[in-house]
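User: Fold this one for me? It's 3-methyl-2-oxobutanoate hydroxymethyltransferase.
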Amino acid sequence: MSATGQARALTPPAISARKGKTPLVCLTAYTTPVARLVDPHCDVVLVGDSVGMVLHGLPSTLGVTLEMMIMHGQAVRRGLERALMVVDMPFGSYEESSEQAFRNAARVMAETGSAAVKLEGGEAMAETIRFLTGRGVPVMAHVGLTPQAVNAFGGYRVQGRGEDAERIRREALAVAEAGAFAVVLEKVPEPLARRITEEVAIPTIGIGASPACDGQILVVDDMLGLFGDFRPKFVKRYAELGNAASAAIAAYAREVREGRFPAAEHVFGDKPKTVSGGEAA
Ligand code: KIV
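Assistant: Here's what I get for 3-methyl-2-oxobutanoate hydroxymethyltransferase.
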């Protein structure tokens, strides 16, 4: 690994080149151990601003700061070798101007070693995406349900139903034309996601979108059954680790209260010290 990047990792152009080929496998990660688990199986690992809700207990992603994204980005970076790491730009860190977006994206890349950032928004962000990509910042775009706009949408609703489909289509075309290397389509009707995938030249990464997308992404804690606060329809639970963890913690608490833990095999005898001064097993 190089000082600021992942020497053997997939690159944004390599991800773009997968358009229409084998589906791209993408998951979120926020910590080193989870990054190590997902890396061998994923093409893209997103340090999503969902970290605010999933790990920090925030009610939405709006309270996530640049410092939080950088800290989690650094942790994830230590666990990756192969997958492309993308770090989310948090609410308020890029919308003001292209210059603000560049300043903060450059900081994220320099301090985390990520090769790309993700930002939410379509036509309104096209100029910023053009500015960033023209200055060495690869951008993954995100249209459809963009959670940072939850207040403007009035909730986490499906976007692009009926006549609204044309708006989402225009958003996707605008970010592709502006130079994004891939675009996340979140919570849009399946036929619309399919149509956008056919029309745009860059890979579409679906979440609550369509199997026709060029790739899929889920929040890793959702698909592992670790985050139970809300269960969107688009999440398939591949495990119930939350239940397993809860049962293990209950068993530990019971054994401590009953004096059954620690047992003989978990405590130390009074063997003499070794020559080097360390404690013998
Ligand atoms: O923050 C996040 O985890 C995301 C994905 C759900 C796409 O933006």
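One thing worth pointing out: Residues 28, 46, 48-50, 88, 142, 184, 207, 217, 219 surround 3-methyl-2-oxobutanoic acid (CB under 6 Å).
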